[in-house]
Amino acid sequence: MKLPIVAYGDPVLRKVCQNIDENYPDLTKLISNMFDTMYAAYGVGLAAPQIGLPIRLFIVDTGADEDGNPGFKRVFINAVILEESGEPWAFTEGCLSIPEIREDVMRKPNVLVQYYDENWVMHEEALSAMPARVVQHEYDHIEGKLFTDTLSLLRKRMLKSKLDSISRGDVRADYKMKFPQQRNKKR
């Protein structure tokens, strides 16, 4: 089932998320719905806060590469980045919660991450290049951070009106979104 993606401006995107355990209700269904949602929005990662849940869960699927090799696909539960290393490199990032805005973001090329998978098996995995970048982006979400937080003060000022428009719902996306005003109207 495709879920609405929470838009920029919603407070859930700024919360440091809570760990969960294997008894979290309907976790398997939630993970499946998150993959459905991410694929429908043509994303490569999706974090639980982006669907309104302040829990430490995110998914990644980078898809097959240009040579047809399988991509990097994982479920990350209660993830902790233990180490980031290497010379930072710029890459243009976007975010399903911030449609129509893409910016160069500097990130280190290597990470060591510890997490549980969907079967509650603990992993400690070294990642590099694109998988590392996507994991860092999604990890930021469960830490209450957005890729726009990494931008210079000048660039943030230049994007302010666009970001305000997104939080008001004045944006078009090819997927279902939930805007902060919609959430407040329901209360």
Automatic annotation (TrEMBL):
Its EC number is 3.5.1.88. It comes from the Bacteria. One of its GO terms (molecular function) is peptide deformylase activity. Keywords: Hydrolase, Iron, Metal-binding, Protein biosynthesis. CDD domains: Pep_deformylase. The active site is at 138. SUPFAM superfamilies: Peptide deformylase. It is an enzyme of class 3 (hydrolase). The keyword Iron applies. The keyword Iron applies. GO terms for biological process: translation. InterPro entries: Peptide_deformylase (IPR023635), Peptide_deformylase_sf (IPR036821). Binds 1 Fe(2+) ion. Fe cation binds at residues 95, 137, 141. It catalyses: N-terminal N-formyl-L-methionyl-[peptide] + H2O = N-terminal L-methionyl-[peptide] + formate. Removes the formyl group from the N-terminal Met of newly synthesized proteins. Requires at least a dipeptide for an efficient rate of reaction. N-terminal L-methionine is a prerequisite for activity but the enzyme has broad specificity at other positions. Belongs to the polypeptide deformylase family. HAMAP family: Pep_deformylase. NCBIfam families: pept_deformyl (TIGR00079), PRK00150.1-3 (NF001159). This is Peptide deformylase. The lineage of its organism: Bacteria, Pseudomonadati, Bacteroidota, Sphingobacteriia, Sphingobacteriales.
